[in-house]
Structures are given as C-alpha cells and as structure tokens.
Amino acid sequence: MTATLHDVARAAGVSIKTVSNVINNYPHVRDATRERVEAAIDELQYRPNQAARSLRSGRTDMIGLIVPDLRNPYFAELADDVMRAARAHGFSVLIEQFDADRDSELAALRGARRRGLDGVLYSVLSLGEDDAPLLDEVGMPMVLLGERIFHSAHDHVTMRNTEAAREATAHLLASGRRRVIALGSHPGEIVGSAGLRLRGYETALDEAGVAVDPALVVPVDRWHRVDGADAMRAVLDSGLEFDGVVAFNDSIALGAMRVMLERGIRIPDEVSLVGFDDLDETRYSLPALTTIDPGRSEIARVAVEQLVRRITGDAADEEPREVLVDFRLVERESTTR
Amino acid sequence: MTATLHDVARAAGVSIKTVSNVINNYPHVRDATRERVEAAIDELQYRPNQAARSLRSGRTDMIGLIVPDLRNPYFAELADDVMRAARAHGFSVLIEQFDADRDSELAALRGARRRGLDGVLYSVLSLGEDDAPLLDEVGMPMVLLGERIFHSAHDHVTMRNTEAAREATAHLLASGRRRVIALGSHPGEIVGSAGLRLRGYETALDEAGVAVDPALVVPVDRWHRVDGADAMRAVLDSGLEFDGVVAFNDSIALGAMRVMLERGIRIPDEVSLVGFDDLDETRYSLPALTTIDPGRSEIARVAVEQLVRRITGDAADEEPREVLVDFRLVERESTTR
DNA sequence: CTGAAAGCGCTTACAG
DNA sequence: CTGAAAGCGCTTACAG
Fold first, then answer.
1. Are B309 and B196 in a shared domain?
2. Per-residue pLDDT tens digits for A214-233
3. Is the Cβ pair B225, A280 closer than 8 Å?
4. Does one domain contain both A167 and A286?
5. Is B333 within a domain?
6. Does residue A120 belong to any structural domain of this protein?
C-alpha cells in the first residue's frame, strides 16, 4: 500500500522524527542524513497523509470562501482572485455557494465549520446586523467581504461604496445629465451595498444642486442580468423620462443596456450608462460599459492576508480591522465627458 | 476547549462507540440512549473532528475540480453545476485552477493528490495523449471532462463536439451562407475540442457540397473574449470575405461580435454568427447569440455521479466509461433560418 | 543533530 | 444493543 513515515524511516535507517524534520524543512538536519531520507522518499513515493497531519497539528491549510454563486461573474472573478492569493500563502480554497435566503446562507456557514477549515472569507448577502451573534458561533477566524453587517467583531474588507457611487453619478452629471436613474436600490436597506451606493448617488445630486426624484430610484432585488433587463423594461413601459443610469452592478447594467438598445435608445447619446464591478465582459459590449473598478483583486489579496494572520496568530490581539480599498472610474463608451 | 467524543460519552453515560453509532446513524441504538446522547451533543456543542474521521476512515468527502480558470464563464458555470451535484452526494468541492502551460496543469494534479481528496474531476487542457501515463500517477479516482486525452484508463464525460459543430455549421448553410469562418481552430490538434469541432464544421460543408476553404479556418489559441476580438480584427483587416462565423465557444463569439458591430457589420443580415456553450450572457448581447447548449449541467451531474461511484467502490470493476451528453442548438438573433 | 514515546480524535473489528 | 481496545499516520514536547 502507500508508504508511511515509518516505511521511509526504516528504508533510510533513521527515526520517524528525522523524516518528519526533513519533510518540514527543519533547519538542523545533517546534509548526509537529509539526502538519505530524500532518496528513500523518492524511492517509496511517499506522500504525507494530510488527515494525520491535520489531526496532530490542528491545521488543514484550507480556507473557505462563502459566496452567493459563481454564475454571477463578480463572484467568479473574486473566487479566482482569492484562490491566487491563497495559493501564495500555501492555502487551498473550498468554495461554498448559498442561495438567496437566510437559511441557505446559515447552512453554508455551518458547512464551513463542519469541514474543519482553518478560516473563512464570507461575502454577506442576506444576513443583517441582528445576525451578528450567529457569526460568533462560526468558531474560526473569519473575514467579511462586502457590507451587510455593519458592527461586528470581525475583520472586514470592502470597497468605498458610497464614494464610488458618488463619483459615478457625478460623472454623468458633469456631462449635463439631469434625470439620472439609480438602478438597483434595495428599499429600506442602509448598511448593505445598495444602501451605501444609493447614498453616494444622492450625495452627488445634492452637490450638483439637483433634487432627488424618488421616481428615478428603481429597486432591483437580485443583481443578475435578467433582473436588470426586467427592471429596465418596466421603466421604459412606464414612460419615465431619463437621460442617465447609474446601475449598482455591471450585470444589471448589461441587462438594462440590452433592453435599451433593443428599444432603439442610443447610448450614450440619449442615455448615459455607468455600472459597478469592471467585469471582463464590460469591455466587449457595444458600447463598452463605463464602470467602477472596485479594486476586487486588492480586496481578495488584503482579505486573504488578514485571514492568514488570524490563523497563524500573528494578528491574535489585534482589534477587528476595517479595510477600505481604493476604487477607480473606468471611462468607456457608454458615457461622455 | 472543544468537546470530543469522550466528553459526550461521559456526559451521556455511555461508551464512545455508542456516541459514534448515534452520529453515524447506525440503526441499532435504543431510542432512549439515542436521546440521551443527542442531548449531550447539543449541550456540549460537540462537532466531530474531520481530520480524525478522515484519518481513520480514509475518506475526506471532498472532491477536486481541476479547471483552467474561473474567469472563463464556461468554467465558472461548470463549477457551479459541479458544486450543486456534489452537494447532493454529500461532497464538498475544492477547486484548483491552472494556467495555460503543462507545468501548471501538472502542478494542479499533484496539488489535488497532496490534499488527500477522495477523487477529482479534471478538465484537460494542455496535456495530450502522450501524458496518459502521468494521469495514472494521480492515485485516486478521476473522471475526465473535455476531450484532450483520447485513450486513457479513466472515465470520461463530454459533449458531442463533432455533431454539435456540424449542426451549428449546417444551420448557417441552411440559411444560404456559403463563406463560413471556423473561428477558434488549433492547427494540428485532432482529439481536443478544437479538432473535433473543426471536423464537424468540415463534415457539414461536405454534406452541403461546399468546398472547405483553408483561408476560412481561423486559429484562435486561447478562447477568451479578447482572443476572439483580436482574431476577428485581423480577419477584417485582411479583407477576407465571409458571410457566416461558427465560433468554437461563446467567449470568442462575443469578442468577435463586438468587433464586427464596431466596424458596422450587420448581424445577422450580413454575417450570421453562432457560438458554443450557451453562457448566460449570450441572452443579453444585441443581437442575442445563437449557440450550442452543450448540456453542461448534465455533464456535471453525470461526472460527479460516476466519480462518487468510483469512490464508494460501487463501480469498482467497471471498465472506464465514456459518456456523451446530448446537445441542443439554441436559435437566437445572430442567425436566421 | 537525532531518537523513543505519547497522543491528536475518531472508526473499526471483535466481544458479549 | 453496547463496550473495551487497537490503531489510522502524523507532530510535538522531551531527552540526550
């Protein structure tokens, strides 16, 4: 069967401790001994058993990534970034998806715990401030991505939602637009991404001396392409007048774009459109989409690094940190100056 | 610290074997005993230690998914499908990405082995038939997705590449197109997706009595949007005449579409365009893209099921299976009848 | 610089 | 229906 530490030790004529030392790169092993052990490892094709290692060390070198779903390109690109960042620290990533309800989200959290991961990155969706106590039960290091839970005892890495929405909106206003739709609001929400982005939208209008027209604030519950398309269809059917759209993510922007173009609306001549996320596909729509680059790979990098510091204990006594990453407006063809 | 089996046994006044029986749902436990044990579990908030469990049982209940990268929407959607299918069997999924070179691909395979997974799903990209021996060294159940390795000792689940490409091409020919580009070939490749799809393209031309013009067979190395866009730009700059495009996946189709529209080419009036994969975003381009639904979630479902059967031993003595899943041409706006 | 021993927390035969 | 014992394959103090 597969070789164990004992087999290697026997073959090399040393104790298992010495083999372990070689495998784990402990410094004080004589060169001759090391070579003998390595030869035995090669010969026997020995691979350390991870389960035994984990049982003894209490570490799995795996972290969880808990996200809504990879069909949403934002999370697919985030997962890519997280996996690359984790690999740089020697960690693998186990992804848990959840559906758009609280129970599914809680089940994903419990699943992470059950698997004995070293820690989790969690992109909050349905859970709110009242659920903060539940997070403490996860029982392992956790770094939050996104906005939903405002006060919590956990590290938190996110983008500057409000400032970015303000800049996106100001960009449309600067080109003379005055009837700008906010597409993607979640009525009643304050601390989530939708709430924060709406605040930025309102701030930009205020600063430009333009009154906020509630009719222009259009709710979109989920933020997939189909939802943006449906919402825009309803807007156009209602006869609402507008000359700009700040979509709260790129998927709904692209769904809305398709519907507007299909109805013969010229973008950006008649309507300017700006999104959020800088998905790869926004470069290939026609017109290419102006959008906010939210610093997603930076978010992934910082979040993984902070999680690893919690896992290793390097950040043991640190207060929970909130890290805000820089964003950038990426001007393409769907808006004008 | 965290409770162990012994703590629960002590609290419930039974042996650890009985607690284990309760946790693993063994049938022969008296109801009263079971209740006492469950009460103790709740009280102590006991969670089984996965590492210990795996060490003893030799199972981790995790499978690997080895794919090029999740930035490619096809693999993101595949990963989603695989995770859902795996969950239905009680498995979690650990995703390993690799870059477009052999070494990176081999490293991903080795990584899967190192992690002590129960099995892997592997979407072959760079490895070829000569590498088949390397696959045997993986040392765990493995099911292959995609086409690259033709003969191998492993199960293999894939779409009907040749037939689908034939149908896509025939669809363009039926509407009167005669100068149809094959966009995405890999010169010299025979057993990979590109080779098989090219064969289907040629077959359809033959059947329609149209000669294959080598100038219309356009290589595209990687199959991302940017590559499709670059290739189409080169085609247009070259002055090549054509009235149809069979793109070998949706990403290059969408990249090419963007470039054609930008140059003022009307789709489908002047050029008909068909893709492969039925990505969600193909519904939202303008025109919406006609494409091949490759049966991706069925591929995921069947592949996971077969892998699980290998892991549990239910398929122990079975010969390696090749499963071909049904496809479907999805007609949208980028082609005409 | 290397060894002998203990033990991480389970499951798996084996008894009874 | 339940118990006592062994052992999965490592790492971690502890010696020397």
1. no
2. 999 999 999 999 999 999 99
3. yes
4. yes
5. no
6. yes
Query: Whole-model pTM?
Result: 0.94
pLDDT digits 0-9 by tens, B233-251: 999 999 999 999 999 999 9
Q: Answer yes or no: is B335 within a domain.
A: no
Closest alpha carbon to C1' of C4, residue: A15
Residues A173 and A285 in one domain: yes
Residues B213 and B261 in one domain: yes
B39 interfacial to chain A (CB closer than 8 Å)? no
**B261 vs A69, A73, A286: nearest CB:** A286
| Structural domains counted in chain B | 3
Mean pLDDT (chain A, rounded): 92
For residue B336, being part of any structural domain is answered with no
The confidence score (pLDDT) of residue A238 equals 98
pLDDT of amino acid A150: 66
Taking the C1' atom of every nucleotide in all shown strands and the CA of B26, the nearest one is: D1
Indicate yes or no: CB of B284 within 8 angstroms of CB of A225: yes
List of chain A residues whose C-beta atoms are within 8 Å of the C-beta of residue B225? 280-281, 283-284
Band of the pLDDT at A128, cuts 50, 70, 90? Answer: confident
Cβ of A21 near strand C (distance < 7 A): yes
Return the CATH number at A243: 3.40.50.2300
Q: Pick from B92, B224, B261: which is nearest to A94 by CB?
A: B92
Nearest to A284 among B111, B254, B280 (CB): B254
Which positions on strand C lie below 7 Å from a protein C-beta?
1-5, 7-13
What is the C-alpha to C-alpha distance for residues B272 and B183, in angstroms, rounded to an integer? 13
Chain A CB contacts of B62 below 8 Å? 94, 115
Distance B51 CA to C15 C1' (A): 28
B288 shares a domain with B168: yes
Chain B touched by A261 (CB under 8 Å): yes
Report the distance separating Cα B96 and Cα B112, nearest Å: 8
Residues A234, A145 share a domain: no
Which domain covers residue B176, as residue numbers? 161-294
Interface membership of A333 toward B (CB under 8 Å): no
CATH number, domain of B22, equals 1.10.260.40
With helix as H, strand as E and coil as C, how does chain B read?
CCCCHHHHHHHHCCCHHHHHHHHCCCCCCCHHHHHHHHHHHHHHCCCCCHHHHHHHHCCCCEEEEEECCCCCHHHHHHHHHHHHHHHHCCCEEEEEECCCCHHHHHHHHHHHHHCCCCEEEEECCCCCHHHHHHHHCCCCCEEEECCCCCCCCCEEEEECHHHHHHHHHHHHHHCCCCCEEEEEECCCCCCCHHHHHHHHHHHHHHHCCCCCCHHHEEECCCCCHHHHHHHHHHHHHHCCCCCEEEECCHHHHHHHHHHHHHCCCCCCCCCEEECCCCCHHHHCCCCCCEEEECCHHHHHHHHHHHHHHHHHCCCCCCCCCEEEECCEEECCCCCCC
Mean pLDDT score, A95-122: 89
Kindly give the confidence (pLDDT) of every residue in chain B, 337 residues in length, as a single tens digit, with 9 standing for 90 and above.
578 888 888 888 888 888 888 888 877 788 888 888 888 888 888 888 888 998 888 889 999 999 999 999 999 999 999 999 999 999 999 999 998 888 999 988 888 888 889 999 999 888 877 888 888 778 889 999 987 776 778 899 999 999 999 999 999 999 999 999 999 999 988 888 999 999 999 999 999 999 999 999 999 999 999 999 999 999 999 999 999 999 999 999 999 999 999 999 999 999 999 999 999 999 999 999 999 999 999 999 999 999 999 998 888 778 999 999 999 999 999 999 8
| Shared domain check, B197 and B140 | no
Give the mutation candidate from A41, A56, A71, A267 for the B interface (greatest B CB count, under 10 A).
Answer: A71
B5 touches strand C (CB under 7 A): yes
Same domain, yes or no: A286 and A188: yes
Closest nucleotide to B29 by C1' from CA: D1
